[in-house]
Amino acid sequence: MSVIGKEIYLVKRPKNGIQESDFTIETVPVRPIKTGEVLVKNKYLSLDAGMRMRMEDLKAPIPLYQLGESMYGDAIGEVVESKYDSLQAGDIVRHSFGWREFAIGNGQDFRKIDPHLFPSLSAHLSLGLTSYVGLLDIGKLKKGDTVFVSNAAGSVGSIAGQIARLKGAKRVIGSAGSKEKVDYLKHTLGFDAAFNYRDGSIAEQLRQSAPEGIDLYFDNVGGEQLEAAIEAMNPFGRVILCGSVLTPSGSMGSVSNLVLAIGKRIQLQGFVVTDHLHRAADFNAEFSTWLKEGSITYTEASIEGMENAPRAFVDLLKGKYLGKVVVEL
Predict the structure, then answer these.
(1) Which domain range does residue 103 map to?
(2) pTM for the predicted model, two decimal places
């Protein structure tokens, strides 16, 4: 019996902001699998702000979405058919063939997961590993550090700030784009201070939030907030370069004070979490314990139906959601 499934394609490069019309949903036949492959029916798709950069026509050291081809991203699904020895029908797997109803690929590209490890299956799409690796391995978080996290109400920042608190930071500060999100950071996630970057000078608000300076900055946006963090950074501070927000025109904000990093002996390091997947077991063990103990809050927005994924992605980039955003199929 033939099987058909829905896939989402990028059909236009975004101009003056991402639009629903930049996407199309196609119904396509699902081909038979070959030896060494598996067929997976997706249950949850991950929507992440970092996908926005992949939609540009950039000269960048990352894979970009091609026009007229299926998009991709993290997903959780159930194996329907397998011709790969290590997986069998019924297994639950995580993989990177999202934005589609059915996924086919080499078995080694699908990682079997324990569906009972976290309170919800979709929590396996948490970007907490990025937060964990960034803080502990890249940023070398120390007890007593003052930590600043930008885009702190998002999927990476919200977990990063809480891990910093759990691992002994003296003070955790977050920035966000609305009063609702600032209140969420302070009253729900336990940040010591938070500010709305739209409310005035970011540099001044950061100085007020961290009168003794900052030791570690988890950067999810670049531009003006990175500039403010460098100004507020104490000598020998560390900057974790995790993400960058594009302007509506597709450009990145500039940073004019990098020269300060020389005199302050600041370390700035970028990273890609796929280089650190060996840390997944450590993160999963700690994250599971924190969730069970109630010492960490995991906030998730779940949108039902693949046809609503483009609108949800547009809303994500507009700052509509708190925490992680997933699409349930």
Answers:
(1) 4-126+299-328
(2) 0.90
